[in-house]
Design goal:
Number of strands: 4
Shape: globular
Strand order of the largest sheet: 3-2-1-4
Largest sheet: 4 strands, parallel
Strand content: 15-25%
Length: 138
């Protein structure tokens, strides 16, 4: 295995996940691709008004969380892994779809367990079961 894909969850510390990925990459001599994805706030159309400022504020928050995840990724692995790559996206598509598509260039996916999150909020966390079934990778 030459390439590991590490899926970071936005808005949470990924310390243990990155430690495991660094250890595994070191043993295998593999490169590591960090990846994060999220969805913008969903707007239900109806009689309510949503200001453009609210949408812009959400986008800035998403971009901030992505930058924080990338910084955490690079800080944890830069001295332990020779070849690092970062990918991220804000998408309206299901997060598992984006992650599975990106997993085509990896030999192994490293991801954490699903945290306690609302069934109604899939904007920051991918459905891990869905990812496993779509990725075609261990």
């Amino acid at each position: 295995m030459t390439t590991l894909m590490v899926h970071l969850e936005l808005g949470h510390a990924n310390t243990r996940l990155l430690e495991a990925a660094a250890d595994l990459a070191g043993r295998l001599g593999a490169s590591v691709m960090g990846i994060a994805a999220c969805q913008p706030i969903r707007i239900v159309y109806g009689d309510d008004f949503v200001s453009g400022d609210f949408i812009e504020q959400d986008r800035k928050e998403l971009e901030k969380e992505i930058k924080e995840a990338e910084a955490e990724f690079r800080a944890a692995l830069c001295t332990r892994v020779e070849n690092l790559e970062w990918r991220s996206m804000i998408t309206y598509a299901p997060l598992a779809d984006y992650l599975a598509y990106q997993a085509r260039c990896a030999d192994l996916i490293v991801t954490g367990v699903e945290r306690d999150r609302s069934v109604f909020d899939s904007s920051r966390g991918a459905d891990i079961g869905d990812l496993v079934m779509r990725a075609g990778r261990p």
